[in-house]
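agent> Task received from the user: take the single chain below, predict its 3D structure, and emit structure tokens. No templates, no multimer pairing.
agent> Plan: (1) validate residues, (2) run structure prediction, (3) serialize to tokens, (4) report one or two observations.
agent> Step 1 OK, no nonstandard residues flagged.
tool_call: predict_structure(input=
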Amino acid sequence: MTRAALIRKLRSLEACDEAVSWLKSTDHATLQEAWDGCERADWMLWLLDKLGAEQGLMVSLACDMADSVQHLWLARFPDDDRPANAIRTARAWCEGQATREDCARASWDAGDAARAAWAAAGDAAGAAARAAAHQQMAALIRKRVPNPEEVAS
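)
tool_result: status=success, residues=153
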């Protein structure tokens, strides 16, 4: 695939302008090169979804990412187990041990907790943390999915 074809492919998948601009600003000529160089976990998850990755893989990746920062949550909110419960419930769903309704309840609880924490965080500190988190999560995704084209359905 040529660089131009890669850009056309991303456009055909309705990639955001920011992602396409990023790709244009790099030397990446193949999907694999772009995958290896990407530091935006959200873009990587978006691509996996667009390529048809199984829902179980997507949920498992989300659980891995949440698990990797769970210690930060517990350091600040040691008595709040809502995020950990959401992770456990989602993993149980991947194994056929929880319903979508169980996941929805746990997700709403974890979302409420996250919104409360977000409101308490400083904007500048939050921006720096998000940038670092994107890089960390991108590395985690690449470790689990070294080649995005292998998940295509």
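agent> Step 4: summary for the user.
The first helix runs from residue 3 to 12.
agent> Done.
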